[in-house]
Amino acid sequence: MLAQAAEFEQRLASGEVLRLCDGRILATVFYEPSTRTRLSFESAMHRLGGGRVISVAEAKTSSSAAKGETIEDSARMLAGYADVIVQRHPAVGSARALADAADVPVINAGDGTGEHPTQALLDLYTIERERGALDGLTVAMVGDLKNGRTVHSLARALAHWQVTLDFVSPPELSMPPALVAELRSRGTVVRETSNMDEALQRADVAYITRIQQERFITPDEYLKYKGVYVITADVVRRAKPGVSVLHPLPRVDEIATDVDNLPNAAYFRQARNGVYVRMALLAMVLGAI
Questions:
Q1: Which residues contact 240 (CB under 8 A, 6 or more apart)?
Q2: Quick check: is 113 catalytic?
Q3: 88 is an active site residue
Q4: 234 contact partners, CB below 8 Å, separation of at least 6
Q5: Which one of the listed residues 88, 152, 247, 278 is annotated catalytic?
Q6: What dihedral do alpha carbons 5, 125, 112, 224 form, nearest 10°?
Q7: Entry pTM
Q8: For 144-157, how does the pLDDT look when each residue is reduced to its tens digit (9 = 90+)?
Q9: Domains of the chain by range and CATH?
Q10: Catalytic residue at 67?
Q11: For this structure, is 184 an active site residue?
């Protein structure tokens, strides 16, 4: 899939106009807010050529879910309208429930605090492009690792290569113990710490995540951790030379704007790469290649 994404990137850069998805329809159904994921999927479908998009951007309040419609009934209905469904939903396991009831491909665009597999794919693509390879890297994941679905998926994905993973978080927001045990059982070297500066001195990739306000029960609980880790240009200069800085975005205050113009600030390139990776995924599940 990474190779196919690279091919699509090259073909688009050459000015080629693709016509791979004539007559196909993508439905994007988002029960949680999204900018990058929803728009990059829709952009990917348009760039594949010939396809169409139907979308519900605020499905929690603007769809029949507000009237009590179940995921299973939504699946049967959507499968009659579209050839592939992309869903974001606040419940862990919701993508599986949709897929079990639908007779068209279903892509998980985030299920609560569970997984975000397509983000992991574009993260792999970005790391490979920035570093030249995936094997042999030390990757530091920083922030809310307990609730961060992006780091859950990326950690599992990186375990297919020879990597060392440094998990940096306050103890209360650490990576779920079951996931840490799973990674170690697969032979992945995992280190856990709350010391960001120490971890960044050995990291080839710093994957920064925000403290997610929407995952906390009270504002006071969120404020307890807000700003606990902040990446500035000075922090990057003290880190391992050339460390690549990634972030799934949106950022709040965890990466200062003085990092943006550093050559190793990769997060906006990372967001752009989502189009190529999601083009590859859509083309594959639709049988267009």
A1: 200, 201, 202, 203, 204
A2: no
A3: yes
A4: none
A5: 88
A6: -150
A7: 0.92
A8: 999 999 999 999 99
A9: 2-112+273-285 (3.40.50.1370), 117-255 (3.40.50.1370)
A10: yes
A11: no
